[in-house]
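Private note to self, pasted from the team thread so I don't lose it. Backbone tokens:
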């Protein structure tokens, strides 16, 4: 039975560099892993009223339920995100917040997480990755250690077909996926 890896892309744009990077990285997972993108584009904005037992006139949206179940059915989650205004994009923060409720059934709890950030500039999404790590630290999510993945000047890494072609970058990402799968193997979900 293959291990399920949810890939969350922190950009809603169809042609985003984050999505192209994610599609490349999915192909680097070894046999025995089912890595796939879990879409976050149609998630309603997070509102605690949906999860508050005291509020009876606002039922939880079905999109919340489907998303939470997809994350809970995962053995690991890989975030691939750009940087927006020195932090994570709003759509990704929304997805994290939705997975953090209800309090007694948090989808993220102890779920191994990998993070790949990128930017069109040189910093490679450093600020977005640090902010994402801060948000995830609350849920005891193990992450691979060094080296972290900050892909700077991401448009130059991807050819007209959406493929990453630089062997050095491919090798670096394959190594990260290998370390991430080792982490997933070492931290099985209950």
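Design output:
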């Amino acid at each position: 039975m293959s291990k399920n890896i949810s890939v969350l892309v922190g950009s809603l744009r169809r042609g985003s560099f984050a999505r192209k990077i994610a599609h490349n990285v999915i192909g680097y997972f070894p046999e025995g892993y089912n890595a796939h993108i879990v879409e976050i584009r149609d998630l309603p904005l997070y509102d605690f009223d949906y999860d508050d037992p005291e509020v009876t006139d606002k039922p939880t949206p079905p999109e919340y339920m489907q998303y939470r179940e997809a994350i809970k059915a995962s053995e690991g989650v890989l975030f691939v995100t750009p940087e927006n205004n020195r932090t994570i994009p709003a759509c990704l923060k929304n997805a994290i917040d939705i997975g953090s409720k209800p309090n007694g059934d948090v989808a993220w709890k102890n779920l191994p997480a990998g993070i790949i950030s990128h930017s069109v500039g040189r910093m490679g999404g450093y600020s977005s990755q640090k902010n994402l790590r801060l948000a995830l630290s609350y849920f005891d999510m193990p992450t691979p250690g060094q080296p972290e993945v900050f892909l700077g000047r991401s448009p130059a890494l991807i050819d007209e077909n959406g493929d990453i072609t630089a062997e050095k970058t491919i090798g670096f990402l394959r190594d990260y996926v290998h370390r991430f799968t080792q982490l997933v193997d070492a931290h099985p979900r209950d």
